[in-house]
Amino acid sequence: MRLKDKVAIVTASTRGIGAAIVNTFAQEGAHVYMAVRNLERSQEMADKLNEKGYFVKCVYLDASQKETYSSMVEEVLKSEDHIDILVNNFGTSNPRKDLDIRSTEYSDFIGTVDTNLASVFLSAQAVIPHMEKNGGGSIINISSIGGLVPDISQIAYGTSKAAINYLTKLIAVQTARSNIRCNAVLPGMTATDAVNQNLSDDFKEFFLKHTPIKRMGLPEEIAKTVLYFASDDSAYTTGQIVDVSGGFGLPTPIYGDMISRKEKR
Fold first, then answer.
1. Residue of 54, 157, 166, 236 with catalytic role
2. Annotated catalytic, 60?
3. Which uninterrupted H or E stretch holds 58?
């Protein structure tokens, strides 16, 4: 019960990594608020968790309507007198339009960057004053290994995640005296519905060829790292950018080819 009676907001938490974070936090005793656009679908998930004795509620958030970041926080404070944890899990990209520097329209590029940065900046800006009144808190941003390792496509998504990594450090430095910590978790290829639906088997095979732990991560594995940053286990840790990617991007660039040759022997 590492989060017993802590109040947590998790954005975009109906599926995948977000849903795994909600499950993990609820099991650890937190009052979890799922900040989502589809309230009906999210309520079904919340009901199932509440039937098990957990505390999960839903609040409205639509990333395309920037004013809903502040209203999300105010909605939680109608039921709670404090907020301890904010997990900024929302992120978006359109692989059909988010290509390379030659092919991507500027409007598509800046739209993705703006939406992804706003999801961290505006939610943090809304919650920080309340964390300060409560004596502190923890903000965890879900970034991506793509924010560290340049890709041949998704220029907007990668740029936005790299900016979120830096924004994480800025928030950490600027709020530390208020006992607010801010860290980022960077998943690699994770076994979610979005990955399975949007990425071809060939691409997944090629990606994993360059991943020392040769498999996709599980949403629950990402959630456990987020739990560490949310709990008092990380009370003296802030401004950290931690990738949970199975070692992707760590070895020599020719790693994948070398391993393939050895495995064929």
1. 157
2. no
3. strand 55-60
